[in-house]
Amino acid sequence: MQARSLLLLLALILVAATAEAGKKKEKTKKDGSKCEDWRWGPCVPNSKDCGLGYREGTCKDESRKLKCKIPCNWKKKFGADCKYKFESWGGCSAQTGLKTRSGILKKALYNAQCEETVSVTKPCASKIKSKSKAKKGKGKD
Q: In what residue span(s) does the Pleiotrophin/Midkine N-terminal domain sit (predicted)?
């Protein structure tokens, strides 16, 4: 008798878990669209060149807008949808006064058109920063 009760209880738990998994799948596709080939445009900030904005997407006859954000410290040259893995900064060029490093494309969000490799430069430090500071002793004379 206990074995039947246990088996019935396990069957009910299995049915409940399966139903809950089905609900989660339905929630992820809450927009009701059956279209799977969405084409998304770049993130367009609401004002200036960074911050909150939106991106437009189209699929067949449907169109949508998604909220997005471009960080204000982002390299605008590459776009917010292109993520790169950068190597360490190279040495300072005496001729140009610039340091250079390159990055390899790590991820292109929303099917963005991204360059496979990019190169960035920045000015060399004008003077060497010293982290050591003189410390005054607190001993008795």
A: 23-78
Token duo for residue 70: 């471009």
Q: Give me the residue spans of the domains in the chain.
A: 35-71, 73-124
Burial profile 12-47: b = 16 or more Cβ within 10 angstroms, e = fewer = eeeeeeeeeeeeeeeeeeeeeeeeeebebbbbebee
Residue among 101, 77, 106 at smallest CA distance from 87 = 101
Q: What is the pLDDT of residues 115-138, one digit of tens each?
A: 999 998 999 986 655 555 555 555
In angstroms, what CA-CA distances link 34 with 27, 56, 61, 67, 125?
14, 18, 12, 21, 55
Point out the residues of the chain with pLDDT beneath 50: 23-30, 141
Handedness of CA 47, 50, 54, 58 (dihedral sign): positive
pTM of the full structure:
0.52
Just give the CATH number of 35-71. Answer: 2.20.60.10
